[in-house]
Amino acid sequence: MDPASTRFYPPVDLDHCHVLAQDGLDPSEGSPWFHQQMVYAVGMRTIEVFEEALGRKALWAPSVPTIHDGRNNAFVQQLRLFPHAMRMKNAFYSPDRRAILFGYFPSEASEDTSTPAGTMVFSCLSGDIIAHEMTHALLDGAARGFREASNPDVLAFHEGFADIVALFQHFGYRDLVRREVAAARGSMTAAGLLAGLARQFGEGSSRGGPVRDYVNFPSDINYAQTSDVHDRGSLLVKAVYDAFLLIVERRTGDLIRLATGGSGILKPGALHPELVERLTDETCRAARHVLRMCIRAIDYCPPVDVTFGSYLRAIISADLEQVDEDRFAYRMAFLESFRHTGLLPRNLRTVSIETLRWRLPTGRRLHKTPKWLMNIVDELAIDWRDDLSRRAIFDRSEKRRKTVHHLLKKRISEDPGIAADLGLKAKLGKFNDDFSADVDWAERNKDVPNATNFEVVNVRAARRVRPNGQVREEIVIVIQQRQPKFVDALRQKGRQFWFRGGVTLIIDPRGGGGEPEIRFAITRSIKDKSRLAREQAFRANPGDVSLASMYLADPALAKLEPFAMLHRHEDFAA
Q1: Neighbours of 208 (CB within 10 A)
Q2: In angstroms, how far is the first alpha carbon of the chain from the final one?
Q3: What is the pLDDT of residues 210-243, one digit of tens each?
Q4: What's the CA gap between 117 and 120, in Å, rounded?
Q5: For residues 361 and 420, what is the distance between their CA atoms, to the nearest angstrom?
């Protein structure tokens, strides 16, 4: 469908015998059917990368009831892709439509571009843009708590993470990597093609180059002073890319020393083909590992209010669980690059691999094997041999959410102190979407001692294969709670927001002695007054990330399309 041209293109049949016989449609910028094939192929590849790293099938964000009355979330079977959704310089993931909308536009004249003026530029033909938008959708499905901007890092994280996935997918094209390695004589720092995103889109927008370039990174962008979503997100990408460069240097150092007789200085001229092949192998392997680390960390993030520092802790913690021997010091490379970029966590006195690892809260009630844990794991009854459809996985997850909620609600009623260890506030009631107290809920629970309202957002089962061939099984439980707060002391109506807290529980169902144990309890306490003060200050003056003004003028529409607003017309995707 092409609304701007009032035309409808029949869907391409990729299973047609003629298409299969030629291994897909031939590339054609003017063919709407090739456009459809392009978004599908890159989209599916992005899904595969996520599922491989997470150890489970990916699910789209469910359709949540408008009124929180206990009704089930609705399963979303498909994410719709519209290659010709609009004639504008944009492409974005729409949670409301459960779709990705790609724009197109005539290129502008520029001396610094190889794209002639007037040439139609289709965002659906950029593998970077497709991967970027698919990542927004996949991240929204895995971590719905990251949709709401509670601090300057949240939306920037969405942007930066989407760029990371798009950037490192370049290294899945071995021929491209080999050519760049040969041209750059083994120096990935000089391999500009592999560090720039959406080149044609950027040229067509008269930018004269990629939309974002992580080789020629601007020196005037720094974390302490940058509030723009894209600039701030680019710092996260730079930190990850710099870690990757360190890792590649360590993985290829012995090859360079052997090729140079120990001097480390290559002779002038073309590299030997065998050396190019070996350097390509190590570069692609490092990129694959780094991308897996970045995606796997999503399960180890706090349920809300993510920051770049907490994401680093998630990367380190997840990798320590997955990989015993860090031969090439991947984790130290991440620490060094995040330190250099100024993205370290704010609340650590000393920074090391050990201190960056998430810790189990030392509360009296919450330790590795609390009494209620065995009951929950038994009730979940997870069969790790199951190979279920996405619909069946979703249905079981919904059932398990209710099971965990019922059991924890009962335990908190018996011992309110458990709530604090989970980042929750005991005896907190339920609130309507207009911030008013839910009187019906209070009435229904008046006979329940210490009745506490909270939501079990997700219960996920992950099964990952470790480098030594062992299979690691994990249960990830995400719990949230919300309460209304005012932006400032004036307590003006209309100046309220939802302050959220909760916990991400990482559970080993078998543990060290065969019994389930909590590996990590990653909390964002709803009773944390300093965090509340920071969020109030941010919401009072959000700077360049004002949701209602970044892209859409209509505030009502802005709420429906949060990702469309992430980009102004000169940028490419939200």
Answers
A1: 12
A2: 21
A3: 566 776 778 888 898 888 898 999 999 999 999 9
A4: 9
A5: 10
